[in-house]
């Protein structure tokens, strides 16, 4: 509870700055349209309620969020809950896919020199190529081999971003047992698989959860990027794109806020799972 | 039958700065039920020798047999319990879980496991701490748990590398006493590395004095002390005589070095 006050202070400061920014950035349009000289109060009032403001004021986004989240039927194409759900589903699929890929690749890298020399450079290269360049290619390629719809390519793009932190974290985690712990296994004449299940894998759990937190945020970004290329009509990414095409900043901003909230919720959920797992495994102090 | 037989044993590490002669011309025979201590200045190869016996290191010269076979065959027959300087318990396992670890790996039955866990935890005075996690125990208790872990399966050789090095004197005395009782009860053969002369003299039936560069044995002292050893035996003349001889041996090793 002691944390609440500083957090609220920061939030209040951001909102204040935001309002100031809205007045400043939107005032040009107000003054352009003005017939005569305007008082400061009139300028401020106008900047708060434009239809297409450069920077929407917080309460405008709030109203839009209220309208599209609470008021609209969840099945409506105008409901953010609907679009959020589409994005969430694909994020979770991509997250699951990426996590499994990351873990399997990490096991290969840790156990095989060949894999570690061949896989790692490619993994690193894969992350240096901008995802916005790859995303359309994945969609086109999958379409050409007959994969219908957007769900699969989106999940793959999402997994593409998500597997990397998991791979890096798990390689580190699986290598975390020290020489002594490995020697101990040797004195027991433990098989390689016993050493894996009883030593390497449990040692890697803290590392795994840390990278899962990064991974799920990356998976969300991947999904949204996957929704951006033309043609998508569903998902938060599509909302951002449509808002852009129709010159509707309020729509863009509310989709952005929704994505941020979703990211926050997902990361917190993983953090809670981490807490529970650490506690049950006895790591917690 | 002798349990450990080393003759002309040597081990040279090839490092970037050239070869390091960790062990040279080590000849030693350990009989069943012996309690052998290794003492010597830092870097004289005590750990390395223990690791050779446990087949964690491979000698480059000479021969080494354990229970009549090669060290590695003995390892695969699970002839050793190894206690490292640090307790090295798994933080995600309870104390009972840690002690159960070797038993799980060696495929003991469920009933057998819980029976043994209970027995060895009793043996090291840790009954009642089964469900605790390592971080909930003091360093001395953790070290006892790691000893219990090495005792849980039927290895007849216990290799201990400065197991009490990090503990204070009082706890150390207590654990030494317990270790002697335990050795008496289990009839294991124990090889024990230490830096402390009193500890070596108090515990051992034989004390092996080593010196460095290259690591070699300079003296082997048979202890005249009886098997029954209360703590105050350390004030007896016999004890002091043995301690004196060990100290002389250590000093001689150093003089040779200079
Ligand atoms: N893996 C290794 N590679 C290279 N040199 C090593 C290795 N292990 C040990 N040595 C060297 O071998 C020599 C003996 O080391 P060892 O650890 O056996 O000494 P020790 O008697 O146990 O010393 P301490 O009392 O400090 O534990 C040292 O000079 C050390 O630097
Ligand atoms: Mg040592």
Automatic annotation (TrEMBL), chain A:
<keyword id="KW-1003">Cell membrane</keyword>
<feature type="transmembrane region" description="Helical">
    <location>
        <begin position="207"/>
        <end position="230"/>
    </location>
</feature>
<keyword id="KW-1133">Transmembrane helix</keyword>
<keyword id="KW-0812">Transmembrane</keyword>
<dbReference type="GO" id="GO:0005886">
    <property type="term" value="C:plasma membrane"/>
</dbReference>
<comment type="similarity">
    <text>Belongs to the binding-protein-dependent transport system permease family.</text>
</comment>
<feature type="transmembrane region" description="Helical">
    <location>
        <begin position="151"/>
        <end position="171"/>
    </location>
</feature>
<feature type="transmembrane region" description="Helical">
    <location>
        <begin position="123"/>
        <end position="145"/>
    </location>
</feature>
<keyword id="KW-0472">Membrane</keyword>
<dbReference type="GO" id="GO:0055085">
    <property type="term" value="P:transmembrane transport"/>
</dbReference>
<protein>
    <submittedName>
        <fullName>ABC transporter permease subunit</fullName>
    </submittedName>
</protein>
<feature type="transmembrane region" description="Helical">
    <location>
        <begin position="250"/>
        <end position="272"/>
    </location>
</feature>
<keyword id="KW-0813">Transport</keyword>
<dbReference type="InterPro" id="IPR035906">
    <property type="entry name" value="MetI-like_sf"/>
</dbReference>
<feature type="transmembrane region" description="Helical">
    <location>
        <begin position="92"/>
        <end position="111"/>
    </location>
</feature>
<feature type="domain" description="ABC transmembrane type-1">
    <location>
        <begin position="84"/>
        <end position="274"/>
    </location>
</feature>
<dbReference type="Pfam" id="PF00528">
    <property type="entry name" value="BPD_transp_1"/>
</dbReference>
<dbReference type="InterPro" id="IPR000515">
    <property type="entry name" value="MetI-like"/>
</dbReference>
<feature type="transmembrane region" description="Helical">
    <location>
        <begin position="7"/>
        <end position="25"/>
    </location>
</feature>
